Amino acid sequence: MTLFTSDEETKSLLNSSFCQLIFSIFCALFGAIYEMFSHEVYSFYMIYAFAIPLVFGTLFFVLIARSGRKKPSGIALSFWNMAIVTFTVGCIYKGIIEIYGTTNKLSVMYPLAGILLVVIALFTYFLSKEKMGNEGAEAA
Fold this sequence. Notes:
Blueprint: H1 2-36, H2 44-47, H3 51-66, H4 74-100, H5 109-139
Helix pairs in contact: 1-3, 3-4, 4-5
């Protein structure tokens, strides 16, 4: 039964990895199309916004799925995905603001919210890992 659960968890992580890959491709296309109409004004935030879901989503999930380590719980995975989306949307927003040629105080909130979500994701991951360890000790 444990192998079945592990296989299902791996399948879930690979599914999340594929979704992050689609999101990364969408961000790359969005950035390319947006910059085609930006009158030769470019922003590195907009150009490289696709890299966040690619590295911290797709590659990260594939590495976790292929490793022998404990897979994250659903809640930890949800918070991690929210952090990826927050960082990516923040980069796109900052890129739009730079291309427009202005500043905005609210652009500081995206990295702060993303960091908070990463901390919550790591906390829930290690909390569930500790809880699993305690349940395993009680079963023995």
